[in-house]
Amino acid sequence: MARGWLLDELGRDFVVLALGQPAPEGTGLRAVTPAVNDHLPTRYLGDQAQAIYLIRPDQVVAARWISATADEIKAALAAAWRGA
After folding, report:
1. If 0-12 CB within 10 Å is exposed, 13-18 middle and 19+ buried, where does residue 75 land?
2. What is the pTM of this model?
């Protein structure tokens, strides 16, 4: 990820945000994997070393895991579409 705002990197589609780990392959979604800097742990990781987020097109968190498989992300995506 280039220097800039994380929100700009998320875009306007569902996206997987992977922090402190690679994003699972096979989700069919674009992945954003920024370097973990001094600001991300406080806001997105808490006391964990890593996290995976499913971010909706309106940039709201649809799901969060410490780690996730592609199937778990696809299930959360399907649930998010049902709720839309």
Report:
1. middle
2. 0.87
CATH number, position 44: 3.40.30
Specify if 1 maps to a domain.
no
Domains contained in the chain, number: 1
Residue 76 · residue 34 · CB < 8 Å: no
The parent domain of residue 23 ranges over 6-83
Q: Which pLDDT tens digits describe the chain residue by residue (84 residues)?
A: 456 777 788 888 999 999 999 999 999 999 999 888 877 778 888 888 899 999 999 999 999 999 999 999 999 999 998 875
Residues 7, 28: Cα–Cα separation, whole Å? 20
